[in-house]
Amino acid sequence: MTGPERREQLVAVGRRVFADKGFEAATVEEIASRAKVSKPVVYEHFGGKEGLYAVVVDREIQRLLGGITAALEGGAGARHLLERATLALLDYIDSDSEGFRILVRDSPPGQSTGSFASVLGDVATRVEHLLAVEFKQRGLDPKSAPIHAQMLVGMVALTGQWWLDRRKFKKEEVAAHLVNLAWNGLAGLDRSPTLATTRR
Prior knowledge:
It contains nine helices and no strands. It has helices spanning 3-25, 28-35, 39-46, 49-72, 78-95, 97-105, 115-137, 145-166, 171-187.
């Protein structure tokens, strides 16, 4: 193999090992063994497990973010954008389940730092601007758009994790239910929400 071909092979093998075992349990020995190379070859290309992991994660982030960004582009209405963004995340989970497992295993959606959390934060920022426009048109306070963007993105991400492990529903069904809850929930928003009960 040429140097670039060997590097790509190691990235593919490393991706499988990280998806199977997670970063902590993965070893250079296993990656080298599965690639049928010696350990020094892995160190030569990536400097160690951390370097290989960084390349794998960066590629997954770019793949996921690229799909969602493309879904949010265009002049479609807010509901269509919500549907397209939801399907983009579910498409990624469906076609790149190994990559998704890598991103969420070491960085679950509830964390504020880490690879997956940073992707979700970026997506929420993009959704926030779309919601602010929609809120203005509906006479709602656009300042609350960031809260709703976080809720929407978190809901889709957590549901996507659940779906990956169970697969009891078709992707389009999951997307339809997510959009139904999000859209109809947004359609019925109170202008000034308050809690029905208060703490004492």
